Amino acid sequence: MTGSSILFSILAGLSLSADCFAVSLCSSVTVDLVRARRKVWKVAAVFAVIQTSFLLAGWGAATLFADWLSLHFDRFSTVARWAGFLLLLYVGGMMILDAVRGETGHFSLSGLRGIILGGVATSIDALSVGISFGLAGQEWTDILPDSISVFIFTALAVVAGMLSGSAAGTRFGSPVRIAGGIILIALGIHILL
Length: 193
Fold this sequence. Notes:
- This protein is mainly alpha-helical and about 190 residues long.
- Helices cover about 85% and strands about 0% of the residues.
- The protein has one domain.
- It has 7 helices and no strands.
- Helix 1 runs parallel beside helix 6, helix 2 runs parallel beside helix 5 and helix 2 packs antiparallel against helix 6.
- The chain starts with a helix and ends with a helix.
């Protein structure tokens, strides 16, 4: 493995983990700090497994169906972007509604549903990146370091995001939850652009 391929793997992991940080930061404002500290590694592991699985699934699909995907990638990419947007719109909207109503729990990282929704919403781009890696002809030996990097950086981003978000939510309450919802909706809009 060359220095440039190591750097590429690190950059791939960092770039794909950025929205995991943002979603875990915004979504964990409803999780009290004590509970966040207890479950942070479990949530991080779920996000990292989903993100890495989507990367590998995209790469595998592109490797197996390269001819078909090269003809239809633009169409698939459009559907994937809309799916990511709709998931983030739902999550952000529920966070704002919960904050306005003074409720918690419709969407947060304290429940399995929220964890999986957050993991999937942030992994749509990993699927597209995996497809592009497969179409570029990356072999198994090339995708393995990228996968490890994505797993590690995603887990670390979620840990940092959850602990920071939980501390902010505990201290500032509903305004932070509303801001978090707005940020998630903005991330969804950004996916479409």
